[in-house]
Amino acid sequence: MTNVTSRVLVLGAYGLIGLEIVRRLRASGHDVVGLGRSIATGRRLAPEIDWIGADLASLTTPEAWRRHLHGIAAVVNASGALQDGARDNLAASQSLAIRTLIAACEEVGVTRFIQISAPSADPAARSAFLRTKGEADAVLRGSTLDWLILKPGLVIGANAYGGTALLRMLAAFPVVQPLVLGDSLVQTVAADDVAEAVAMALAGTVPMRSDYDLMEDTPQTLRNIVRRFRRWLGFAEARATLDLPPWIGFTTARIADTAGWFGWRSPLRSTALSVLSHGVTGDPGPWRRATGHTCRSLRDTLAALPNTAQERVFARARLVFPVLLVVLSIFWIASGVIGIVQREAAATLLDGVLSTPAANILILAGDAIDIAIGVGLIVRSWTRHAAVAAIIVSFGYLLAGTVLIPWLWADPIGPFVKVLPGIALALAVAALMEER
Fold first, then answer.
1. CA distance 76 to 24
2. pTM of the model
3. Which of 190, 245, 185 is nearest to 220 (CA)?
4. What is the pLDDT of residues 124-152, one digit of tens each?
5. Contact at 8 Å (CB) between 106 and 144?
6. Half-sphere exposure of 276 (CA within 13 A, CB side)
7. Average pLDDT, stretch 227-237?
8. What are residue 97's phi and psi, to 5 degrees?
């Protein structure tokens, strides 16, 4: 058994698992290179390592990988996406890219490859997530590399993203606890236990060319996991549990699937519910026997995480954010549509101030801007810009209105006054846009 410092390439290095692996390997003295889509995000989260900015879906030939493997002794694949969408192509990023990376490693002499996979990953699986993971796993097993496949259960970490964010959101529901598939069995694992397993493998203390499930010993129901999260966050116990039929959950998930094509990565999508319906379980025994290490229970995992006001604010903010976004988008789109339909009535407000043609042009331009802002809000890559535009345009409307029709400030319906809550809502959306 050796503990050799080496240069390690980590894919998905600023993700939920990847960032924990980066920090653990750095603590062990390894020279780490991170690969992620955004170099700016990587440098913000882990400025002490080198970064490669690339989309895995574009790295689908051994030639594309070779220049990134210079000087690399080992590769850790911690990348992954739950479902296809505007930002994700699972066949390319989770299967083809990784299979060609394995081939490139064999060609250039990278000898060690650690794959973070998933329980039930299989090339014959019905879901694209498990199928593409399984395809990459199968190629790795047939390679000449010194490989290890780790299959974590439901990963719990301080960096709330994906499933860990969903659990916090569910736990934040006031008064009642809605649940779908509450009796499904799940085994959790701490993100830093996964990182420790990778560090052990690179140190030579883990038997290689093997698959290992990484998870706590005892499965528990989703109902119990959410209850533990409520207690850990410091929220009051739910007065009642509302067990919803699966069709409600899957209908909601299909809406989230649609949002995925606008760039949103909701943790509550069809793939997540499909996997959950079959349970997230495995056998941690082989890992314990091979290494003498046991993954922590959910109780111990949560006990090691801070349960501060920041956690409670995050949980509540993630719960209400979709509502804020949808309401703001509908407000701006409806404002534009109503303005077009009621253009003549709107033009009468400007009688004596502007000519009729000028008033019509001004109204139609404003309506087009309103609709554009509303549409921009629901496209993930445009949302923050659209929210900022909403704030600027709102102040512009107030300024122009104050100059042209100042008497509306005293209107009993308060059309100008009601713009101010819209500005506050746009500020909230812009402020809550952070994902990582």
1. 13
2. 0.87
3. 185
4. 998 899 999 999 999 999 999 999 999 99
5. yes
6. 28
7. 95
8. -60, -40
Q: 185-186 and 220-221: which strand pairing? A: antiparallel
Alpha carbon distance 357, 363 (integer Å):
10
Residue for token digits 């400007």?
Answer: 350
Can you tell me the distance from the alpha carbon of 117 to that of 130, in angstroms, rounded to the nearest whole number?
Answer: 9
Q: Can you tell me the mean pLDDT for 289-306? A: 95
Q: Is the pLDDT of residue 273 over 80?
A: yes
Residue identified by tokens 């093997």 is: 210
104 with 65: CB under 8 angstroms? yes
Q: Is the pLDDT of residue 2 over 70?
A: no
In this predicted structure, what is the pLDDT of residue 266? 83
> What pLDDT was estimated at residue 131?
96
Q: Which of 50, 392, 133 is nearest to 384 (CA)?
A: 392
- Measured distance CA(287)–CA(293) in Å, rounded: 7
For residue 23 the two structure tokens come to: 């920090």
φ, ψ dihedrals at 173, nearest 5°: -60, 130
Which phi and psi angles does 19 have, rounded to 5°? -65, -35
SS (H, E, C) the chain: CCCCCCEEEEECCCCHHHHHHHHHHHHCCCEEEEEECCHHHHHHHCCCCEEEECCHHHCCCHHHHHCCCCCCCEEEECCCCCCCECCECHHHHHHHHHHHHHHHHHHHCCCEEEEECCCCCCCCCCCHHHHHHHHHHHHHHCCCCEEEEEEECEEECCCCCCHHHHHHHHHCCCCEEEECCCCCEECEEEHHHHHHHHHHHHCCCCCCCEEEEECCCCCEEHHHHHHHHHHHHCCCCCCEEEECCHHHHHHHHHHHHHHHCCCCCCCCCHHHHHHHHCCECCCCHHHHHHHCCCCCCHHHHHHCCCCCHHHHHHHHHHHHHHHHHHHHHHHHHHHHHHHHHCHHHHHHCCCCCCCHHHHHHHHHHHHHHHHHHHHHHHCHHHHHHHHHHHHHHHHHHHHHHHHHCHHHHHCCCCCCCCHHHHHHHHHHHHHCCCCC
The 10s digit of each residue's pLDDT in 154-173 is: 999 988 777 788 899 999 99
Q: Is the pLDDT of residue 358 over 70?
A: yes
Measure CA 265 to chain center: 5
